[in-house]
Amino acid sequence: MIKKAFGVDIGGSGIKGAPVDLSTGALSADRLRIPTPQPSTPDAVADTVTALVESFEIGRGVPVGVTFPAVVQDGVAMTAANVDQSWIGTDVDSLLTERTGHEVFVVNDADAAGIAEMEFGAGRRSRGVVLVITLGTGVGSAMFVDGRLVPNAELGHIPYQGASIERYMAESARERENLDWETWAGRLQEYFSLVEFLFSPTLIIVGGGVSKHHRKFLPLLDLHTPIVPAELRNEAGIVGAAALARRAEEEKAALRQRPRTATGSFPPVPTGGGTPEKKDPSSKKDPSSKKKKKKKGRKEREKAAMKKTAEQARSADMEAAK
Ligand code: BGC
């Protein structure tokens, strides 16, 4: 099992990274933070990530996990709510793998924070539907069902008053509008009541930088669901990204170990109830007609036997009547 991976957390204002000891979920060296270049284009961010990874002497085979604040499918950024629009459609996995020289796996930032909480933090051993909501510039969400991630849940973009609800209740809204804790908690109450109604979660974990002030707003919320602060705080992204990189690297290794056929390709995966086999029309041996013949023969034999028995009985009757 891979014990060490490197985690990078790409945020709107800073890019942070550190090697992670995956047996404990702790950083194995002090993390480094470099301001996010502005504008945060793919090229400029790739340079910063490369500089950050190179400043640590990590072995060549160590996988690197990177968080990104967007929907990420197969390593490609599909949205760009709070980052430069030029990211949309960028294959972030390939870009960063090429630049850093390490195998890079990219994941949505909230999904990474969620993975970290589920493996090492407030969600350990939690089953059912667990929601990890991060409050920052935007609102991120990670959804787990019995420990399995449902990737790219975007619960910060529930429509509200003609915009995404994150404009109204993210930590950035509290700062922008200079809201006191009570007023902001009122907005959080509306949000969490809605999310609770929609998903009936068993646990809600609140992350993001502001979660270190959880005593100022979590006790003001009135919900049926237990709601707790994240435990990993600022490091959740780095730890979750590293954990994901390990998982992805191990899955790849397992695939490589599957036995190959003589042609070098992987043996076909059995498909339950897949395409029915085609019958060869030239084949004269049609098992179904054979069966029919067999059935017909048996019926005739039975009929003949009954006829014979009836005849025997009749002649016996006639004999008796004589
Ligand atoms: C983005 C999410 C991201 C969240 C937190 C939202 O605006 O759409 O993908 O997880 O911000 O950064």
TrEMBL record:
Organism: Candidatus Brachybacterium merdavium
UniProt-listed PANTHER family: POLYPHOSPHATE GLUCOKINASE, ROK (REPRESSOR, ORF, KINASE) FAMILY
Positions of the UniProt region annotated as Disordered: 250-322
Pfam families xref list: ROK
NCBIfam families: PolPhglucPhase
UniProt lineage: Bacteria, Bacillati, Actinomycetota, Actinomycetes, Micrococcales
Biased composition regions of type Basic and acidic residues, renumbered to the chain: 276-289, 299-322
Family listed: Belongs to the ROK (NagC/XylR) family.
Protein name: ROK family protein
